[in-house]
Specification:
By secondary structure, the protein is mainly α. It folds into three domains: 63 residues, no CATH class; 41 residues; 79 residues, no CATH class. The chain has six helices and no strands.
């Protein structure tokens, strides 16, 4: 078994979290609260040293008064705790939503919509490789059928009905793959913790 006290602490905290599989108990709550507290403390220190101090307070101390605007917007968040001026919090929230939408929508459009269109277009050179050509056709059929399923301006009758049904199949495949990926990620975390307990802590595996 390990003689490192930090490994013992990590092992006991891991077992405290796993104890929730039996039922909710004080050991689990202690580990949960400890994790939240440590994480918050870490991120507060991280943002102070990597964001607030170099990007706000140092420029202000150098005489860049323009940085007083983001400082004022940040302080307005604390108005939420003062009932008489709590409406001031809407200003930074509205600014963040507007800024975030303006920044993320073009990036999202480029990263997903344009890439989806690029992958949907079947280029003749693609059929030089039979496998790539087949997958290009599958992507094209999947995109078209999925779009038809979400086309609500006309009732799904005639040719639209089987096309929409195929679209549902593609949607379910996408949801299933996403769920499976999420489960695999969680299982990999569990495997990592078990390997930690059996390896560095108990020394049963290398």
């Amino acid at each position: 078994m390990s003689t490192d006290p930090w490994i013992w602490i990590g092992a006991f905290l891991t077992l405290m979290i796993f104890s929730f599989l039996y039922k909710d108990n004080p050991f689990y709550k202690f580990a949960e609260h400890l994790f939240v507290g440590v994480a918050n403390g870490y991120y507060i220190a991280f943002y102070w040293h990597n964001a607030l101090r170099p990007n706000l307070f140092e420029p202000l101390s150098a005489g860049n008064i323009i940085y007083a605007i983001p400082l004022l917007l940040g302080l307005m968040y604390f108005a939420r705790f003062i009932p008489k001026v709590s409406w001031l919090v809407r200003i930074p929230i509205g600014f963040m939503i507007g800024w975030g939408a303006g920044l993320s929508i073009p990036a999202y459009f480029q990263a997903f919509v344009l890439k989806q269109l690029e992958g949907t277009i079947v280029i003749p050179q693609t059929f030089v490789n039979t496998t790539e050509g087949i997958w290009a056709l599958v992507i094209l059929i999947g995109v078209v059928c999925t779009l038809v399923y979400f086309y609500f301006s006309k009732e799904h009758k005639g040719i639209l009905k089987p096309t929409a049904r195929i679209g549902i199949i593609f949607i379910m495949i996408g949801f299933g793959a996403s769920f499976g990926y999420t489960v695999m990620a969680r299982v990999s975390l569990l495997i990592g913790r078990i390997q930690f307990l059996l390896g560095p802590w108990l020394g049963l595996i290398e």
